[in-house]
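Q: Two folds, back to back.
A: First:
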Amino acid sequence: MTGTEAGIRVYWQQRAFVVGALLAAVPAVLFGVGITLGQIFVPCAAAIALPLFLAGRPDVFRWTCVVIGASLIGFSLMLMGFGMFLFLPSGVLLLLVPGAEAYERPSAARVLLGTGAVLLAGLCAWAAYWYLFVHGQQVA
């Protein structure tokens, strides 16, 4: 192995998971704008973006993704009644980041990237259905 040994850098697949987690948080933030406890949604979404600023330190990047992902899953389960369950896919995507090391495990990285893409597409469809039909009926 030359200068690009495993664990020395953050791969584009790992950054794609973080960006996907940010995209998955958009419906949650949009929902949070309309409720009284919406101020807890924006800091959660801002925490999802934190690993992107730590890409220069790969170990810190990966551990930050794991800690923020686990925290989001915990918060989304504890505060499910307030709509925080919309952060659950973001937490799952962040937990998949350490496994997407393309140099060390190329096939696993491709499988995880496909899993993340399917999860993100499913989330978009689910969030659109929930916002248009379920939430729309509660507002009216």
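A: Second:
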Amino acid sequence: MKIKTALLATACIFVLAACQNDTTTAQQEAAEAEAAMEQAGDAARDAAVAAGNAAEAGWDATAAATEEAAAEAGAAADAAATDAEVAAQNAADEVGAAAADAEARAREASADALQKAADAADRAAEDVRN
């Protein structure tokens, strides 16, 4: 950018020199200065275009990175949901097994209690007969 500024300043000096002197050399220098100014303008335009292209590329890269991050977050959420579903199913299976075990124990305890009651009734009936 400093070179562009120097070229522009040089071109201005040549233009000023040409305004003060109408000789052939002055006219040639003025033409060279004008050409240098055009080159400086072209270089500035090219730099502006390059900056715009770089900004656009940066925007595209940012959008792509954001899209990728969103996809990764979605995949992580899906994996977490799957893990939660598996854990819930495992917990339900454990609760079902515990309930079945508790039911079996309750039936066994009830059967034992009924057997003891029947035995006690038999003994009471035996005592009444004797």
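Q: And?
A: The CA atoms of residues 103 and 116 lie 20 Å apart.
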